[in-house]
Amino acid sequence: MRNLQAKAFDIEGNYVKIAYPLALWEEGNAPQLLSGIAGNVFGMKALERLRLIDASLPAEYIRHFKGPHFGIEGIRDMMKVRDRPLTGAVPKPKVGFTAEEHAAVGYETWMGGFDFVKDDENLTSLAFNRFDDRVRAMTKLRDKAEQETGDVKSALINITADTETMEERAKMLADYGWSYAMIDVVVTGTAAVATLRDYCSDLGLAIHAHRAMHAAFDRDEKHGITMQFLAKIMRLVGVSQIHTGTAVGKLVGTRAEATVLADMLRETHMNAVDHMALDQDWGGIKSAFPVSSGGLHPGLVPDVLDIYGSELVLLVSGGIHGHPKGTRAGAEATMQAIEAWQEGETLDEKAKKAPELREALDKWGYYKPR
Q: Is 242 in contact with 250 (CB distance < 8 Å)?
């Protein structure tokens, strides 16, 4: 029998690095990888707490995965946006609108300058807002917004379901000229995501990955699996962008974690960060966008961009819909905040010549959710 024993080779306090023989891992099989390094060991009585922080995957293993179909540059080419973050919003309330009401809010979002209208993670095909109806309603107003603005407009429409249904929904999105499909990737699992990556690639669709349920296993700092490792696996199996938090909004996550997550998704080579990430050479795997969302408004835009830079998808939802003049003005205020950051202006300086931003600052200021 071959010697396939794992070896602990670096122990520093409660941190342990373990090396596994490559022969233990099937080529291109993410579920099998997770079963091995994040499987039954978490259920052992001998362990009170265990946390998987990261895994450095060798080139011989990485090369069997396809990664994102488009990469950041491909997405920018698709959207025809080169020099700023991509922007989007979820209609609010996040569920409750009919398909037509949802699309109407989306239209105002697009007309305010945003690129994307995003479904909530809970919105799939509900009795009051069926998937097919939503696609048709959104398509009609997307075409109108594109004609009126001359810009490319898209939507992150949620196809999450069983794999066969997701494929049917992805096909409908492609038939109606959409460029994205949204999947709740944690609850659907890596196998389904990898399958949909191939199917969506054939249709010319990028995958927007929502991370709903991630905090069930990554929030406890002493147990579970880190978000940065989840992001690594999702880049490996082929999502084009994934939610990573804000560090300044309503969701958990520190500035250091956000920076590591951004590097994990965007860089060709990830340098090790003590107790947070290992070295990772991505080989031919393309990059993916981090998506910053959760509790944002125009006053927080510079803080987010200071952390992430402009290679980012920025989602501001309640922070545009709650604007005193409505959704369109809220989106305009956010775009003005982005312009201010790019031009090296403070928001107060920009607001002197940008009334939508002025009204947003009068309402929210620079408030950070606790």
A: no
- Residue 181: closest CA among 219, 215, 154: 154
pTM above 0.85, yes or no: yes
Tokens of 158: 């949620």
- Over residues 165-221, the pLDDT tens digits come to 999 999 999 999 999 999 999 999 999 999 999 999 999 999 999 999 999 999 999
Cα(252)–Cα(110) distance, integer angstroms: 29
Whether the CB-CB separation of 253 and 259 falls below 8 Å is answered with: no
CATH 3.80.10.10 fits 66-364, yes or no: no
Unique residue bearing structure tokens 């991505």: 282
In this structure, what are the phi and psi dihedrals at residue 332, rounded to the nearest 5 degrees? -60, -40
Taking 70 as the pLDDT cut, the residues of the chain under it are: 1, 249-253
- Which stretches does DSSP call E strand in the chain? 7-12, 15-19, 51-52, 86-89, 116-118, 154-156, 180-184, 206-210, 224-225, 241-243, 269-270, 280-281, 289-292, 313-315
pLDDT on residue 369? 77
Q: Is 366 exposed, middle or buried (0-12, 13-18, 19+ CB in 10 A)?
A: middle
Residue 362: predicted pLDDT? 98
Amino acid at the residue 11: I
Confidence (pLDDT) at 1: 58
Of 66, 92, 171, 368, which residue is the catalytic one? 92
Is the preceding peptide bond at 93 cis, omega within 30 degrees of 0? yes
Active site residue 92: yes
* Predicted pLDDT of residue 30: 98
Active site residue: 69, 102, 208, 210, which one?
210
The DSSP code for 262 is H
